[in-house]
Specification:
There is one protein chain. By secondary structure, the chain is of the alpha+beta class. 68% of the residues lie in helices and 16% in strands. The strands form two sheets. The protein has a five-stranded antiparallel sheet with strand order 2-1-10-5-8, with no helix packed on it. The radius of gyration is 68 Å and the shape is flat.
Length: 417
């Protein structure tokens, strides 16, 4: 809009200049010619100046328009930055809110810790009070013990004094005893003779009584001797029975040991024969598996846009040994050996495709179905040394599409030599 206003202003300026140049009254011929020439010169100069001014104004207008465009772009960028800033402000607000919630949680935890510290302080105060009570009780106990020690010392001093007094009395009594013993020593021989006579008489009476009792107890002695002999006989018979049972047990244990040794020998022989049979069966299984591993698979529906990684052949013609998986498109070797693999692919129409036979991720050989003609065929074969568990599959190198029919044309085969 501003550019149109400026251009209209520029168009108005020269018209006003022309009107000023043509105004006035007509004069005579010579003066008119001179004035006309001078006016034409002035008019030309004015036109030149006008063109210069117009060009400068046009440049200024273009520069102003560029500045306006740049201002618009800067405003859009500033709006974007403002929008981004608002997003950042909102995210910061969210973070601030999260920080506030975390701060609130920390405050609550701090309050809990303060409460716990208060409880621990109260417990420590209680423990200090208990320690003070224990120290006071200990001082009281020490005082009590000291008092008891003092009382004991006092009592021991009084007891010692009493003992001294008793010792004195004992010494007096001992003197009296010495006197009495002297008197006894004087009268002992007579007493001994009297006592010996009384003792001999008593012994003689007791011997007579014993003899009488022995004569009356002969029947009891005979019965005791019979019982002792019977007990000896029972003991000997019991020992004989125990020895017989022990010998029988030993003989039976020896027989069981011999029988177990024989059964162990039979078992070891059976185990060795089973081991030989297992080895023979494993060798036979290896031979059978080696001779029966082979597969042929294919696809039965064409595709003009297939550009995947692994080409899966879902149609199984033969899969001896079940080494090929029609779900993953991979063949896994069931045993060690040398295998032969063959792949054939037809491209769809004017497309091209290159396929690789891959062993454990390593590309071995490649087929080429070029697009120089329609439905070009690419084939290749690989002889590979595989170990149990190795995998082989067909992978796309470049290109797209494959062609086939209900009877497979694009196929993948392999077998063990």
């Amino acid at each position: 809009m501003m550019s149109y206003i400026i251009l209209g202003f520029l168009c108005v300026i020269p018209l006003s200049c022309l009107s000023t140049l043509t105004d006035g009254e007509p004069q005579n011929g010579t003066l008119r010619d001179e004035s006309v020439d001078s006016k034409t010169d002035v008019f030309r100069q004015l036109l030149n100046q006008e063109t210069l001014i117009r060009m400068s104004l046009v440049k200024n207008v273009h520069s102003l328009m560029k500045d306006m465009v740049e201002m618009k772009e800067s405003m859009s960028t500033s709006n974007k930055r403002l929008h981004d800033a608002e997003k950042e402000i909102s995210s910061l607000k969210n973070e601030v809110q999260l920080l506030k919630t975390e701060n609130q949680k920390f405050k609550e935890q701090a309050v809990k810790f303060k409460d716990e510290f208060r409880t621990t302080d109260s417990r420590f105060n209680e423990i200090e009070g208990n320690f003070t009570k224990v120290s006071q009780s200990q001082t009281q106990y020490k005082r009590h013990v000291n008092d008891k020690i003092e009382d004991f010392e006092k009592n021991t001093s009084t007891i010692l004094n009493d003992i001294k007094i008793e010792v004195r009395y004992l010494s007096v009594t001992l003197l009296d005893l010495n006197k009495h013993t002297m008197e006894l020593n004087m009268s002992i021989p007579e007493l001994i003779e009297n006592r010996l006579t009384d003792f001999t008489a008593n012994v003689n009476r007791s011997v007579g009584d014993i003899n009488h009792k022995l004569l009356s107890s002969k029947d009891y002695q005979e019965q005791l001797v019979y019982n002792l002999s019977a007990l000896g006989n029972d003991q000997s018979s019991l020992m004989k029975i125990i020895s017989d049972n022990l010998n029988n047990t030993i003989h039976s244990i020896k027989a069981d040991v011999e029988q177990s040794q024989k059964s162990q020998l039979k078992l070891s022989a059976t185990v060795s024969s089973l081991e030989v049979f297992r080895m023979n069966m494993s060798l036979l299984n290896n031979c059978v598996s080696k001779t029966s591993v082979g597969f042929t698979v294919g696809v039965t529906s064409p595709s003009s846009t297939w550009s995947g990684n692994i080409l899966v052949f879902p149609h199984v013609v033969t899969n001896n040994g079940n080494g090929y998986n029609p779900n993953t498109g991979k063949f896994t070797a069931p045993t060690d050996g040398t295998y032969v693999f063959f792949v054939a692919v037809n491209t769809y129409g004017k497309n091209f495709i290159y396929l690789d036979i891959v062993l454990n991720g390593s590309n071995k050989v490649r087929t080429m179905s070029h697009n120089s003609a329609n439905y070009m065929t690419g084939t290749n074969m690989a002889v590979l040394q595989l170990y149990t568990g190795n995998s082989v599959w067909v992978s796309r190198s470049s290109g797209q599409s494959y062609y086939t029919d209900s009877v497979p044309i694009t196929t993948f085969s392999g077998f063990l030599l």
